[in-house]
Amino acid sequence: MKKLLIIIIGLVLVGGCSSEPMYEGYPLHHWREQLKKNDYMARWRACGAFGRFGPQGKDAIPDIIACLHDEHHLVRQEASNALARMGPDAKPAVPDLVALLKDPITQVRQAASAALEHIDYPTWYEATRAHRAEDE
Fold this sequence. Notes:
two-stranded antiparallel sheet; Leucine-rich Repeat Variant; mainly alpha; 8 helices
C-alpha cells in the first residue's frame, strides 16, 4: 500500500510539472491545435486563449496571423487582440494588421488598430494617419 501511494504521488508530481503554460485546464499546444479547427467558435476561443498566454504563446504567431484572414469577423477580431497582447514579438503580423484597417467590420478595424499600436507604434501612426487623410 505504501509503494502504491508513493507511485501515485510521483505520477501526480511529474504530471503537474509541465513547463507548458495552461489556460482553462488545457496546455498551450491544445489551443494551437484549436486554431486550425473547422468550427469558428473553436478558433475564436483559441485566439482568446493566446491573448491570455501573451508572449508565452509567441510560437503560435504564424497560426494566429492566419486567423487574421478568417472568414468570420469574431476570429479576425480576437486574433488581433491576441497579437496585441504579444507585443513586439508579433511584428511579423504588421502587414496583415495594416490590411485589416480596411475590414468591413468596425470592431475588426478597431482591434487591428489597437494591435498595431502595441506591436509597432510608428507603423500604426503612419497607417492611421493615411486612413484619416483618405477620410477627409
